[in-house]
Each structure stands twice: as C-alpha cells, then as structure tokens.
Design a protein that fits this description.
The complex is a heterotrimer of chains A (276), B (360) and C (300).
Chain A: H1 6-35, H2 38-41, H3 57-63, H4 66-97, H5 101-114, H6 118-132, H7 138-163, H8 167-175, H9 180-191, H10 193-208, H11 212-217, H12 226-233, H13 241-274
Chain B: E1 5-14, E2 17-27, E3 32-36, H1 43-51, E4 58-63, E5 66-67, E6 78-81, H2 93-104, H3 108-122, H4 137-149, E7 155-159, H5 167-184, E8 188-192, H6 195-201, E9 204-209, E10 212-217, H7 219-224, H8 229-234, E11 241-247, E12 253-256, E13 263-265, E14 275-280, E15 286-287, E16 296-306, E17 311-315, E18 322-325, E19 336-340, E20 347-350
Parallel strand pairs in B: 3-8, 3-9, 6-7, 7-8
Antiparallel strand pairs in B: 1-2, 1-4, 4-5, 9-10, 11-12, 11-14, 12-13, 14-20, 15-19, 16-17, 16-19, 17-18
Helix pairs in contact in B: 2-3, 2-4, 3-4
Chain C: H1 2-9, H2 14-41, H3 61-68, H4 72-100, H5 108-114, H6 116-120, H7 123-133, H8 140-147, H9 164-189, H10 193-201, H11 206-217, H12 219-235, H13 238-242, H14 255-264, H15 269-299
Helix pairs in contact in C: 2-15, 3-15, 4-9, 4-12, 7-9, 9-12, 12-15, 14-15
Classes of the chains: A mainly alpha (276), B alpha+beta (360), C mainly alpha (300).
C-alpha cells in the first residue's frame, strides 16, 4: 500500500516476524514444554529447546482419560453445529432477503442476544433445566444452551453470505417453475455454500472450546468435555506442567490446523459479518 | 378471440407509494409488446407482476383467459429473461438451460436432447459444458434466451435484456430477438428504457410515466400522433424540439417565441391568441436555400455535430433547437440556417397540461 | 399440512417463518433465561427448592444482601480494572499492529493472519498456558524479567493477592489483541488511498495525516471495536477458571465469576442472579451502543 524501498521492506518483514514470534511465544512454549521431560521442565534456567524430546501423547491420553473428554467435546460441538445450522441458515436467509421494520427488529434482537455472556445466563438455565428434568441428559442440555449462545454469531455471518447472492437468481428459479423452498435449497444455499461452511466450522471450533455451560450442567465426569477435563489439572496448585501442556497440545493442535488451513476465509467472513 | 395476456385495472402500492395506477393492456397471441419509459416509471414492476414476482394490490391478470392473479410464478408458465441474465453460476450451460425441465421431471436424456436443440438455435453449440463465468457477455445473453425458449412457455418477459451489451452487439441482438420471436410464434413483453429498441422491435409500444400509461399503440402511431408532450418528447431521436408560441389572429398559424418572431402555418384551426407549446421534430426541419418559400425561418447556428451520415445543428436560440440535416460540407461553416417545415408536421400542445391539441 | 405446503412453496410468509423458527429458539434459550434470571433474583432459591416451581419471593432482600456483602465493592473495583485495562491495551496494541501490518512488505497479510491463532484458541487452554508461563517458581516470565534485571525477587503472579488480577488481565489482553487488530485493519483498509494522497499534496505530515484523516474516518470503527472489546471482556470467564479462580481469597474476583461462584459453589442462587442482573444491564447498555455504531457505519 504505502510503497517503500527494497531494503526497508525486508527490514519491516524482519520486524513483523519478530512481532509474530513474540506474540505466538505462549503457543511455542506449550509445545516445547509438552516435549520436555519432567526434570527439564523445571530446570533453571529454563531451556528454550527440549534437549531430550519425548512424546508423551499415549501416556497423557490414558492417564488423564482424554479419550472420553475429547469424545464428549466432539459430541457437544457436533450437536451445537447441527442445531445452529438447522435454525440459523434459514433465519440468516430471511434477514438477508426481506427489508422491513419487523426484520430490522429481528436483526436487532439477534445482535443483542449475541453479546449475552454465558456465565450470566447459566444460573437461570441451570434452574430451568433442573425444573424440567433436563439435567438427566446433561450433554443434550449443554448442546441446547451452547447452540443458543452461538446461533446469533452464525446468523450474522451467514446473513452476510446470503446478501452476496443476487436476488434475481432466485427469481429466475421461481419463474422457471420452482417453489420458494426449492429455490432456497437449490440456488441460494449452494451459492452461499462457502460462507455457510466457514461459519459452521468457526462455530464448531468455538463450541469445542466451550467451558461455562459444560462445567455447570455436567456433573458426571464421563460426560465432561476436554475444557472441563483440563481445568481439573490447572489452577493455583498445578504441578504436572508437562502433562497439562501435552493435554493442551493434543487438544488444540487440530483446532489450530483447521484454523490455519481456513485462515483467510475465516478472517474475511468474520470481517464482513461482524461489522455490517 | 381470447387474448394471450390481459392486464385489467392493475394497482400496486408499496406502503404509501402508488407504483402502478390502473394499468390496462390487452396482448393478443403472437404480439411483441414493449414497455418503455424513464427509470422509475413502473415498467419493471409491471413486468414482475406478470411474472408473479410481485403481488398486486387490485386488478386482474389473465393468461389465455385464465385468471392467474393470485398464482405463484411456478404455476404461470411464463419465462423471463433478466437484465443481469440471472444465470445460475453453479450450473453448466446445459444445466441452466434444462433447469425448468428437470423441475418438471423430464428425463435426463430428453432434457439433454432439448438442450442441444436449443443450443443449435441460439448458436451455443459447443458451450453446453461451460460455466456462465467462462462465457462472454453475448453468450450469456444467449443462454438466458435459451433458458426461456426451451420451456415453450405461454409468454416471454424481457427485463432490459440488452442493456449490458456493447452498442454494436445490442443492435445485432435486437434483430435476433425479434426474429426468434417471429419464428417461435411467441408472445413477448419487453421492458426497455431505450425508445429506439421499443420502436424497432415491438408491434405495440406502451409508454409509461409515474405508474401510468401515457399512450399505447403501434410504434408509428405513437410517433405520428403523440397524445401529449411527454410521449412526443420521449419517442423519436433526437428528441422533439419544444418552443412556446401563440396562435395567430387567423387561427391557422402560430407565432414562435424565437428571434424574428417567425410564424408557421399548421393544418387545422385553433382559437386565436391561444398560448401553446409547439413541437418540431429535428428531422422535419428541412434545410432550404432561402426563407422565401413559406413556412420557413432563419435560425442562428451555435454548434454542428456530425455523425457522418447525419449532421445535427444546434441553434443559438432560446430555447435551443436541434435540426437534423443532410447537408453539403460547404454549409458547415454557415453562421445561420434557413429551415422549412410542412404544416402537417407542426405539433401543438396545451402549454399547461401538455395535452396534444386537435384542430377545431 | 395444506398451510405448511402453501408457506414453503409459494408463500410470502416463507422468510418470516424461517426467521421466526430461529427467533423462537433464541427466545427459549437466551431471552427467557434473561427474564427468568430477573425473577430468580427476587426469590429465595437454594439446593432444596431449586427443582420446585413455588419458591418464596423475598423482594429486594437478595439485592440488599449483595450490595452489603463485603466482597461487593472490591469485586466491582476489580471488574472495572479488568475491563478498563484490557480494553485500553487491546485497542492500543491492536491499533499499533494494524497500522504496522498496513505497511508494504512481503507476506504482511499472511503474517497478520497468524495472530488470529490466539483468538481461535479455547479460553481455558489459553488460561492453562499463561498459568504455566506465569508460574511462580519455574515460570519462564519470571526467569525472563529476572535475567533482564527488572526485578530481584520472583513475582508470584497467581498467588500474590495484589497482583493476581493483573495476570488475568495480561492473558486477556493477549487473547483480545488479534480481534481488535483485524477489525481495525478492515477499517483502515476502507479509507480510500486517494484521501491520503490528497492530504499529502496538501502538505500534511505522516503524523498529521494520522490525526486528521485516519482517526476521524475510523471513528465508527473504533466505537464498534471498543464496544465489542468491553462485551468480550465482560464475557471472559474461562481465564479466571483456569488461572486464579478469583483468588487468592477473592483478590482477583470479578462480577461474572463471582455470580457463577455464588450460584454454583455456594448455592446462593438468588444472590448469583442479582449479580447477573447488574452485569446484564451493563452489557445491554454497551451492546446498544455497539449496534448503533454498526448502524452508523452502515449508513456511511
């Protein structure tokens, strides 16, 4: 954008790399610690590079019972995405297509509900769920609550995708003999596919990291997700840092890989949706 | 004879905005109708009500005598070509063409055969497996046409289908669309803001303004006998000149508010002293050698625009007039111009209402 | 069935039905809890009455209890500190990075994108990692500042009552910088280059251009980013759960965590609801400002 001389551009690149390195140091430290032996972890001065790297994936996986945690995380994330996509796609479409006072009110409501902190809603949700007996299915309850929390963001993002689809395409389909729902499913949805997919993945990644609802609604350890599992081990008196960092690394590496692969699309989806 | 399309007393409100104000049009089978008018006149809205994409507040739409006013688009059996073509970007040309057939449950092989047939007619032979983004503007336009033709619908609707093409292609496609209409024996309604398109293509032209039909009829009828100043100014290119004038004592001439107060004769009579607006088409102003021949005036020249075949002279008068002339090059530098007009070609309009004034 | 058919095939109500389905879900699981929370805040609720429907209303008693609680004002102070410092630093660092990555050098977009890796991480994992970085005895942060000679003693980030809130703030800044930066980058990119060129021809220096063009043209964007920053900071819960759990002895407790602790640790559910009500009022206030600022931007 602002042009500069070649050597200056390389200097700027060096500074940029340095900034990224400083910022991502915590992530680096997670992986390095995960690879260190217990003694090396607590060495003073700390080693910036593991001298006797060892992979403790299997041990941590079994000792910390990660199988069940990760499985529950996936169940909750998948359930959340299913509900969000089912309810949110049509709503996003309607909000993108129709311009009226009522739709403005609906959009305002969605935007307002987007910002409600889960930690403040959990108390009434917990009370209501226990009155309805929903706490007997704690993962279902968590999915229902998490979906409500993520739904507005999905609607806002996918709405932006639908506004990119020209209305005339759908009208052409109607004139060609299709019904409203037929035109929606065969024209609008395929054309907004990228936006829908990226938003759904974003919701999936966020739901994988959900903590408050799971922590509060699920008391049986067999149904708890990885965030709650990890929380057992951290805290002011944590000591098994290699174990914790291995746990964290196993847990977030898939998230980070998906994110890096889709980085550009997530960023553009987010920036077009969040501020419009 | 039942009419192919019949619009009766159509009213359309958008909230408080009155978009269509009592539209009546009767279209026999095989006719090519053009809806023309400035932007915002309601012509596209009217077309969309015929397609069923807009509901109407009151009135009736009948196709082949059947009232379809409340029918959804898919039950109307009408095809539409959109201004943007509205090709489905995620489908190949073949899939675009056969979309309506597949919805009707036509077998795949049969649909393919039809698509090839249509591709041959519209000159899309080799392009069936391409995607819309791989086509040129003209090719896309043909796909949009083909998609309409393949259904053999009761009527074709066109919403400014040529406005995205470059000038040369537009002229070419104009003829092609009309030829296609004739060979299919189709009934078409064609929306355009370009009066030349309307005049050259249509059997029946409907001029609209602000949700009202100003005049409808055969193209030359609109040109020869415009009912008001708006239609007179809208039809014809370059546009008709308008000058204020006053009917003379004798009632068969009009004195123009131009330098030298020239007086022109017209056919018929009007009350003496009536204040009128006089309409003079640029192509009716013939350049003559001198002002002695009657119904002539001398006009100072301000600007000469040459297109090669025609020369347009803009006069240095208030209001300025345009004269369309076939002149010798020697006259290009003339300071003034003598023009003559046939009395039959002098139009008179009421100065306030704009209505055309008939001879008493 | 006939009616269903009409709506989904041809009806004008098609869009409304789709919107209403989602709104019904949101009302059931977001708006209703909001109202219900208000109801609970006027009731006496404990472990034994939680599953019943008739609970005694106690008027404003819960509210009196909370405001008179010795913890109330310290927690409010912590919350203001937490939000204020987090937003200021997130915005400042985010803006600086956004401006830097706008400069022309190879790979700028890609490198900028890497920052978002921090944003996508689950808050609890980020908390765990910072817990390790800031650990008292073997934490790398302590080693770093000691070897740089900034301090002689180790700082006990998580267990020193006067410092523990700052350790959560640091982690929260780290978490919030990417989002701030990306949104501000979008705003910067939306300023047409010819405006800068015109200002440059008019003789404005780089600094003058920043204050007379960049900042004024970013006003709507900054408003939105600040509101979102406040909202996200008020939503922050996971970092507290992972880092200090409000401790030691509530020295780093904030309203959103306290509310949860009251309800789920001490089973003072009515009291927890009261704290939620206070917070929700603040959030709604900020959210209205946010929605208005996005509207404003829409118009521009």
């Amino acid at each position: 954008m602002l042009s500069s001389t070649p050597w200056k551009r390389w200097l700027l690149l060096a500074i940029a790399v340095l900034l990224v390195a400083i910022y991502l140091f915590p992530l680096y430290w997670m992986y390095v610690t995960a690879l260190k032996t217990n003694t090396e972890t607590f060495a003073n001065p700390p080693t910036l590079w593991p001298h006797h790297a060892e992979l403790k994936v299997a041990r941590v996986w079994n000792d910390m019972g990660m199988g069940s945690f990760i499985q529950n995380s996936l169940v909750i994330a998948c359930g959340t995405v299913a509900i969000v996509v089912l309810f949110g796609t049509g709503c996003a479409y309607g909000l993108a297509r129709v311009r009226s006072v009522w739709m403005d009110v609906a959009l305002f409501l969605v935007l307002m509900l987007q910002v409600l902190p889960p930690s403040l809603l959990i108390t009434p949700i917990f009370v209501a769920f226990s009155q309805l007996g929903l706490l007997s299915w704690p993962r279902t309850g968590t999915i229902l609550a998490t979906a409500a929390n993520k739904l507005p963001l999905y609607i806002v993002l996918v709405r932006a995708a639908f506004t990119q689809v020209p209305r005339e395409l759908e009208e052409a389909a109607l004139v060609d003999g299709n019904s409203r729902i037929g035109a929606f499913l065969s024209i609008s949805v395929p054309l907004a596919r990228n936006g829908i997919l990226v938003s759904a993945i974003l919701i999936f990644l966020q739901a994988l990291g959900e903590y408050v609802y799971s922590r509060s609604l699920i008391t049986d350890r067999a149904y708890q997700p990885a965030t709650v599992g990890l929380q057992f081990f951290v805290g002011p008196n944590a000591s098994d840092w290699t174990g914790i960092m291995t746990f964290a690394a196993i847990y977030v590496t898939p998230i980070l890989i998906i994110f890096v692969l889709l980085q550009r699309r997530i960023v553009s989806g987010l920036t077009s949706g969040a501020l419009k | 004879m039942t009419l192919q399309i019949e619009l009766a007393g159509i009213q359309k409100y958008y909230g408080g905005y009155h978009a269509l104000r009592g539209i009546d049009i009767a279209i026999p089978k095989g006719q090519f109708v053009a809806l023309v008018g400035p932007s915002g006149c309601g012509k596209s809205t009217l077309l969309r009500t015929i397609a069923g994409l807009e509901t109407i507040t009151s009135g009736a739409i009948r196709i082949k005598g059947e009232d379809i006013t409340r029918q959804p688009p898919r039950l109307r059996d009408i095809a539409m070509v959109f201004q943007s073509y509205a090709l489905y970007p995620h489908m190949t040309v073949e899939k675009n063409l056969t979309y309506s057939l597949r919805l009707k449950g036509v077998a795949r092989a049969e649909a393919r055969r039809k698509a090839e047939e249509i591709a041959a007619i519209t000159g899309l032979g080799q392009l069936l497996d391409r995607y819309p983004r791989e086509l040129s503007g003209g090719q896309r336009q043909r796909v949009a046409m083909g998609r309409a033709i393949i259904r053999n619908p009761k009527a074709f609707l066109f919403d400014e289908p040529l406005s995205n093409l470059d000038a040369a292609l537009r002229v070419h496609m104009r003829a092609e669309v009309r030829k296609l209409h004739n060979s299919l024996g189709a009934t078409s309604v064609y929306v355009t803001h370009d009066q030349i398109e309307a005049m050259t293509m249509a059997d029946h032209v409907v001029v609209m303004r602000a949700g009202v039909i100003e005049q409808q009829g055969a193209p030359l009828e609109l040109y020869d006998r415009p009912v008001n100043r708006f239609v007179a100014g809208f039809i014809g290119s370059p546009a008709m000149n308008f000058v204020d004038g006053v009917v003379t004592e004798t009632g068969d001439g009009v004195q123009l508010a131009l330098p030298g107060d020239p007086t022109l004769a017209f056919t018929g009579r009007r009350p003496a002293g009536e204040a009128v607006t006089v309409g003079l088409r640029p192509e009716h102003l013939n350049v003559v050698a001198d002002t002695g021949t009657g119904n002539t005036m001398r006009l100072p020249v301000s600007l000469v625009e040459q297109t090669g075949s025609m020369t347009y002279v803009v006069t240095e008068t208030e209001p300025m007039l345009t004269v369309a002339a076939n002149m010798s090059r020697a006259m290009l530098t003339a300071k003034s111009l003598d023009v003559q007009i046939e009395p039959a070609n002098v139009y008179l309009f009421d100065r306030t209402s704009g209505e055309a004034l008939k001879s008493l | 069935m006939l009616r269903f058919n009409r709506v989904f095939r041809d009806g004008g109500g098609f869009d409304s039905v789709l919107v209403l389905l989602a709104l019904a879900y949101l009302v059931a699981f977001s708006a209703f809890p909001l109202i219900y929370n208000l109801v609970i805040s006027f009731q006496s609720v404990d472990l034994f009455t939680i599953a019943t429907f008739d609970r005694p209303f106690v008027g404003l008693e819960n509210y009196r209890d909370i405001v008179n609680d010795p913890l109330f004002w310290p927690v409010v102070r912590n919350t203001i500190l937490f939000v204020g410092l987090s937003v200021v630093f997130q915005l400042g660092i985010g803006l600086a990075l956004a401006l830097f990555f706008r400069l022309d050098f190879p790979g700028s977009t890609w490198l900028r994108g890497l920052f978002l890796a921090g944003w996508i991480m689950p808050g609890l994992v980020v908390g765990a990692i910072w817990g390790w970085l800031l650990a008292g005895d073997f934490g790398v942060v302590n080693w770093l500042i000691q070897s740089l000679g900034l301090t002689q003693q180790k700082i006990f980030w998580l267990s020193d009552p006067s410092i523990s809130i700052y350790s959560v703030i640091i982690a929260n800044i780290w978490l919030g910088v990417p989002f701030n930066m990306i949104l501000l980058s979008v705003g910067l990119a939306a300023i047409p280059a010819d405006v800068y060129e015109a200002a440059e021809l008019d003789g404005a220096t780089r600094l003058q251009r920043f204050f007379t063009i960049t900042l004024p043209m970013m006003r709507a964007q900054l408003g939105a980013v600040i509101s979102l920053g406040i909202i996200f900071t008020l939503q922050q819960f996971d970092l507290f759960a992972a880092l200090t759990q409000g401790g030691p002895s509530n020295a780093s407790n904030v309203l959103q965590y306290w509310s949860w602790e009251l309800a789920f640790r001490e089973y003072r559910i009515g009291h927890g609801s009261v704290v939620s009500v206070f917070m929700i009022i603040v959030v709604i206030f900020v959210a209205t400002a946010y929605v208005r600022s996005t509207r404003h931007e829409h118009v521009v």
